[in-house]
Amino acid sequence: MLFFRTNSLLSMRDVTHGTVIELIWTIIPALVLIAIAIPSFRVLYITDEVLAPNITIKAIAHQWYWSYCYDDLLHNIAYDSYMTSTDMLDQGALRLLDVDNSIVLPIGTIVRVLTTSTDVIHSFAIPSLGIKLDAMPGRLNQTNVLINRTGTYFGQCSELCGTYHAFMPIKLDAVSTEQFVGWLNSNV
User: Fold this and answer.
1) Class of the 55-186 domain?
2) Angstrom distance (rounded) from CA 110 to CA 174
3) What is the pTM of this model?
4) Domain limits of the chain?
5) pLDDT at position 137 over 70
6) I need a surface site. Which of 61, 102, 172, 187 has the fewest CB within 10 A?
7) Which long-range contacts (CB under 8 A, 24 or more apart) does 20-26 make?
8) How far is the CA of 11 from the CAs of 18, 19, 24, 75, 119, in angstroms?
């Protein structure tokens, strides 16, 4: 050992046994992570179930269509929603996005969306509402949504779920409360 001598400033013990520096670079990052984790967990638990939903809709994915259920209303409403074929489209309808039965929800109402699947993993996604929720067999996922404006919102299955994956559109009509009640009465 040419470089380390007993009478020099550095000894072999100082190079191989840096206990103090090892404690510093272990304890400081751990304290930083704890300082970040405590408020993060607090916010996570606070935001878990803040909103009590007024309406719950179940979106059930199948290969390759959606089923919707409104179970918490006076009368249960359930229907399937298939993509409208190109030869059946009305003037001005959007090809590959229009469906025969769209979701109808009132504005200004907190809605819980539950998703599940009957076969493979799908994904219920409406980007303009900020919704992307995986639909998995044997699992029930949920999110809450509050729609502020009337209009029609489009989405699609955003999971590669099979050969007709691109033909699972989602159409949501956000209407006023009066129009929603009229829709409910017409579907009873």
Assistant:
1) mainly beta
2) 12
3) 0.73
4) 12-46, 55-186
5) yes
6) 187
7) none
8) 11, 14, 21, 83, 67
